[in-house]
Amino acid sequence: TLDLTCRRMPCFVKFSEMEEMVNMEAEINEVQPLQLSVTVGSKLQFYFVGKKCEILQDMNRHLEAILKEKRDLRKRLIKHRCQESLPIEATFHKCIVELLTEAVTFIEKLESHLQSLRSIPQIPHMMNNMDTTLSKTEVLMIELEELTEQILKWEELQKEVYSN
Predict the structure, then answer these.
(1) Whole-angstrom Cα distance, residue 115 to residue 122?
(2) Neighbouring C-beta atoms of residue 69, cutoff 10 Å
(3) Which of 134, 133, 153 is nearest to 145 (CA)?
(4) What's the sign of the alpha-carbon dihedral 154, 155, 161, 164?
(5) Tens digits of per-residue pLDDT, 58-108?
(6) 124 contacts 132 by C-beta, under 8 angstroms
(7) How much is the pTM?
(8) The CA-based dihedral angle spanning residues 110, 116, 121, 123, taken in that order and rounded to the nearest 10 degrees
(9) Coiled-coil segments, which residues (predicted)?
(10) pLDDT of 8 above 70
(11) Residue 137 to residue 2: CA distance in whole angstroms
């Protein structure tokens, strides 16, 4: 009842109007930053979308230009480069011939050089194998020397037996 009576009284009417205005201002203050952030976000988004669109258009123009020059590019790719040689002065002909012979020699030996490079990681394993082989060879040499001594002793015994 107190609420009902206070709203009807003229002195409280102004108070209720003021309360409504304060509530409306609070709502407006809550909505405005959201609208501002949405507007700024959408403007930034449109800006970046516009930049991406410009980049895509530039790429599209570039690809169109390439497609227009497709025949010329194919011809240039198919055409041998040696047909577009530069004139060489006569004084350098000897140098060019020597350079070409060296280039041919290099190309001939290229596979063996590449094979040598490929074998570099295997060198430690090969060294271990060589050490093992050397050790076995030394053992065989010692055995051969012992066998040679035995053969010589046997030969001397045979001479003594025949001489007797």
Answers:
(1) 11
(2) 11
(3) 153
(4) negative
(5) 888 888 887 887 777 777 777 766 555 667 777 777 888 888 889 889 888
(6) no
(7) 0.30
(8) 180
(9) 56-83, 137-164
(10) no
(11) 121
